[in-house]
From TrEMBL:
It comes from viral metagenome. Residues 168-199 are annotated as: Disordered. This is Homing endonuclease. InterPro entries: Homing_endonucl. Residues 180-189 have a biased composition (Polar residues). Residues 190-199 have a biased composition (Basic and acidic residues).
Length: 199
């Protein structure tokens, strides 16, 4: 993409696009639930959606009275990384979506095997955080910016806390019943938390 195309599509995503993380049933890999990072554009303008689909790498299809294009997983993450410098209203959502994808699919990778309880909980927190980020403008419009921060902070603290390197192998006291995962020392994404505004 050219810088002009990145800036243009960032404006489309800010105004008409959706950045989300959701869970759905997945029969292909014999799992009950899978978690997806997605970027969607739905508009009556076929030309705009066609451009989004072409540059993002997805299909442009007609649903009811709108044209729609959806990017999933790696394509969604890569697309958001390209347009991130130009995003304004959905910048926080893009930052979290990129971080979540890198961590969730590297740190709690499930390809070829079942996700354990840790992985399911990590993903469910990601879904809840993105749902709240998508409600931010509505809460702010109704004068509930403080409520947004109060609801987001504990969720984000919990998901970050799950990435604390395990101390069990070092013989240091680990509280009974508390489970953490040992992070990879070669993966910067596991240590660099996204900076989200809590108001």
């Amino acid at each position: 993409m050219t810088e002009t195309e990145k800036a243009y599509l960032a404006g489309i995503i800010d105004g008409e696009g959706t950045i989300t993380i959701f869970s759905k049933k997945d029969k292909r890999h014999n799992r009950s639930v899978t978690t997806c990072v997605a970027v969607k554009v739905g508009m009556q303008s076929k030309e705009v959606v066609t451009l989004f689909a072409k540059l993002g790498g997805c299909k442009c299809s007609k649903r009811s009275d709108v044209w729609e294009g959806v990017l999933y997983q790696q394509k969604a993450k890569n697309f958001l990384g390209e347009i991130l410098p130009y995003l304004i209203t959905k910048r926080q959502r893009a930052i979290f979506a990129i971080w979540f994808y890198e961590v969730a699919f590297e740190f709690t990778a499930y390809r070829g095997r079942e996700i354990d309880a840790f992985g399911h909980h990590f993903r469910s927190l990601g879904v809840k955080i993105m749902q709240l980020l998508n409600k931010r403008e509505t809460l702010s419009f109704h004068g509930k910016s403080d409520e947004f921060g109060e609801r987001l902070k504990p969720l984000f603290n919990e998901i970050e806390g799950m990435l604390i390197p395990s101390q069990a192998s070092q013989g240091e006291g680990c509280e009974e019943g508390v489970t953490t995962r040992e992070t990879s020392p070669n993966s910067n994404s596991l240590h660099e938390r996204p900076t989200l505004e809590l108001h």
